[in-house]
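Practice problem 4.
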């Protein structure tokens, strides 16, 4: 998931030349699949025990709390990015950044669209990942409840919901003035999320290491390149026609089945590459520090993701002014990576609550201080705050 965070930043910077080299340019699946699958695994690790060891109601309450957090993260990042592009248009009128982000309707009919923003009936394309995540999380109590009865019921729900999204058009409205629907259909993408959830929950066993499966996964990945790489599509009209013919199978909105197969092939290769228990990731020296840094970014994915959306728009404005030569593009992208790492580090520091540790240390020191020896215990008024 940490790797996906860096790729998502590149993909969101407007006209970033590095985006020509991200996985999405060479295959059907991309960093979105990595993020959703790993988020399913992380959700199982974070919330699954609550459903299993406490109660269904307690698990549902825990999910509701997470939905509440992500909802306000979505609202907050939208307002910040809207402010960024508005200020950019004031400073650089020819930039037309509000229109480029398709936010003209929001500024022209703010009252109506504020209501849509808060009810998730107005979801601009740049801001569609977190609403999808919210929609999927709402389904977690349903799937967890079905799995408590019988795991096959949970898998049946996953499959039936994906089929309804794919063939019956089950989706949600994305704006009040047109019939546009959510770009990331949560009823379709839940299939991948709950696949990761099922692996982390133990409903699905980890696959065996099999060289035949490795070669099959490689074959699937290589075979998709001609049908996804823009240079091949532009050079061979027949490939372009074939790509158009299989559009329902590779669509991103409804998570086409070829995307699922392609991602599972990549996931298996990654699983095989890191070794049993991830032993090949436990390196020392510089490689180990690099792995730990990427892992840290993945662990703090919500803060990193919302930061990347804001940074991407700022970096797009910067590149418009500096030009997109190799040096400028490299400097902006590498600085962006450093910003994501810094955000992850700061979030880890805050979540460790160092002030509580310092307070406990001061309390222990006070109790051991000679000031109190032989003179009785400190008064309740003094001691209580330290407890």
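Answer key:
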């Amino acid at each position: 998931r940490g790797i996906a965070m860096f790729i998502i930043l590149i993909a969101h910077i407007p006209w970033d030349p590095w985006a020509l080299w991200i996985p999405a340019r060479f295959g059907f699946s991309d960093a979105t699949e990595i993020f959703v699958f790993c988020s399913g695994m992380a959700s199982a690790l974070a919330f699954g025990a609550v459903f299993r060891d406490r109660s269904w109601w307690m698990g549902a309450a825990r999910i509701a709390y997470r939905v509440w957090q992500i909802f306000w993260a979505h609202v907050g990042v939208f307002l910040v990015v809207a402010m960024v592009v508005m200020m950019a248009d004031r400073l650089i009128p020819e930039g037309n950044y509000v229109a480029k982000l398709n936010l003209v309707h929001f500024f022209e009919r703010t009252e109506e669209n504020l209501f849509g923003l808060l009810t998730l009936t107005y979801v601009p394309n740049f801001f569609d990942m977190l609403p999808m995540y919210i929609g999927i999380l709402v389904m977690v109590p349903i799937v967890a409840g079905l799995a408590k009865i019988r795991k096959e019921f949970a898998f049946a729900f996953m499959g039936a919901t994906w089929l309804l999204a794919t063939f019956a058009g089950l989706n949600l409205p994305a704006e009040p003035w047109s019939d546009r629907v959510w770009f990331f259909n949560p009823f379709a993408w839940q299939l991948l999320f709950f696949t990761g959830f099922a692996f982390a929950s133990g409903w699905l066993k980890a696959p065996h290491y099999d060289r035949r499966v490795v070669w099959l996964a490689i074959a699937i990945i290589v075979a998709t390149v001609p049908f996804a790489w823009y240079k091949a599509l532009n050079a061979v009209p027949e490939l372009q026609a074939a790509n158009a013919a299989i559009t329902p199978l590779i669509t991103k909105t409804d998570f086409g089945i070829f995307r699922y197969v392609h991602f599972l092939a990549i996931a298996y290769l990654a699983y095989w590459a890191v070794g049993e228990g991830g032993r090949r990731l436990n390196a020392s020296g510089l490689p180990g520090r690099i792995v730990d840094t990427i892992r840290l970014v993945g662990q703090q994915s919500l803060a990193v993701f919302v930061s990347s959306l804001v940074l991407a728009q700022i970096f797009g404005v910067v590149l418009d002014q500096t030009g997109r030569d190799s040096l400028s593009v490299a400097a902006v992208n590498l600085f962006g990576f450093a910003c994501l790492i810094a955000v992850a580090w700061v979030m880890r520091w805050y979540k460790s609550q160092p002030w509580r540790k310092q307070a406990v240390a001061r309390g222990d020191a006070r109790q051991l201080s000679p000031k109190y020896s032989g003179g009785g215990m400190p008064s309740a008024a003094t001691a209580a705050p330290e407890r």
